[in-house]
Amino acid sequence: xxxxxxxxxxxxxxxxxxxxxxxxxxxxxxxxxxxxxxxxxxxxxxxxxxxxxxxxxxxxxxxxxxxxxxxxxxxxxxxxxxxxxxxxxxxxxxxxxxxxxxxxxxxxxxxxxxxxxxxxxxxxxxxxxxxxxxxxxxxxxxxxxxxxxxxxxxxxxxxxxxxxxxxxxxxxxxxxxxxxxxxxxxxxxxxxxxxxxxxxxxxxxxxxxxxxxxxxxxxxxxxxxxxxxxxxxxxxxxxxxxxxxxxxxxxxxxxxxxxxxxxxxxxxxxxxxxxxxxxxxxxxxxxxxxxxxxxxxxxxxxxxxxxxxxxxxxxxxxxxxxxxxxxxxxxxxxxxxxxxxxxxxxxxxxxxxxxxxxxxxxxxxxxxxxxxxxxxxxxxxxxxxxxxxx
Length: 390
Fold this sequence. Notes:
Layout: H1 3-25, E1 46-49, E2 54-56, E3 64-68, E4 79-85, E5 93-100, E6 107-111, E7 120-129, E8 141-145, E9 150-151, E10 155-158, E11 161-162, E12 170-173, E13 177-178, E14 184-191, E15 201-206, E16 211-214, E17 225-234, E18 248-251, H2 283-293, H3 299-312, E19 319-322, E20 329-332, E21 335-343, E22 349-354, E23 363-367, E24 381-383
C-alpha cells in the first residue's frame, strides 16, 4: 500500500472513532458524563432534623438525619450527599456520606453509623446530585451533642443502729456527678425486709448539696428493725438515675410500759389532757392525742385516738369514715367505723394511725395520700361525734 493510501486509511479510522465517542457521550445515563447537562435542574433539599439549636442527648445517639426530598427534571436518578462539620464553614468535616438513595414520599431519613463525640457543636447540610448535576447545599443546621449526665450512688448516712425516736430524720450525702445536671430529687425506700420486696415507707425530697436532711414526720413501729436506701434522679432533660446507695438499717426504740389498763367505752381514757392538743391538722395533733389516751394495742384503744382527732378537727370539716367490711373496724353509735382513718365531706380521707389494730403499734401518722375529692364515696362520711358518748 502506498504512503498516501495508508494516510487516508488512518484518517478514516480516526473519524470513525470520534463518531463512536460522540454517540456514547450523547447518552444522558452514561457514566462518562462528568459535567452538567444543559437544562437539567435539581431542587435544593432541606436539612430538617436535627433542626437549628437542637440538643442531642446520648439517648438520641446515633443521630438520625431527616432530609426533605426534592424533584428533578433529569432522566438520571439522584442521590443525597450529607456533610457534618465541627465548624460553620465546613472546613473540618467529621462525617460525609454520598450516594444516599431518597426514600419514597416527602422525606428521607439516614441514621449515622456511630455516635458523635459529645460536648461539641455540629453543623450539617445536604445536597442532591445525579453524577452530572448537583443542587446547592441546604442551609446548614447547628445542633449540640450534649455531654451525658452521670450520677454516682448517694450516701445513706443516718439513721443507723439503735435510735431514740420512732420518727427519724434521714441524712443523705450528695453523690459525685458530671454533665449538665438539672434539678435532682432523692427517693428514699424503707422496709422491714432487706430485699425491699415490700415497702413500709417511700419518701421524696429535692437534693441540697452536700447534705440533705429529709424529715418525713412519719412514725415507724416501735422496737422494729428497718432497712433503708436512697437513689437520686436528674429531673432535667437527661432523666439520669443513680445506682442505689448501700443499705443502712436502724432499730426504733421500745416504748415505756403502759399504765394499768382502765375501762373502755366512750368515756375518759388514759390520764392525758387530749382536749389541749389544739385544732391544727397534722401529725403533731395526732401524736399529742395518742400520747394522752393510748394504753394498749387493741382496735378499741386505737379508735379512742381516731375519734378524738376527728372531734378536735370538726371545725375544719373532718369527721369519721364508715367502713362496712375488712380489717380494723369497730362498731360505735350505730355505725361500723375505720379505727384509723378520718374523712372529709368530699370523700377525701386521712390515715392518722400506722400499723393500726389489734397487735399493732397504732403509731401516730398523718398520711394524706388519699386526701382528694372522691377518694371514697362521700356517703361514707359521718360528722365528728363527741368521743365521750358511750
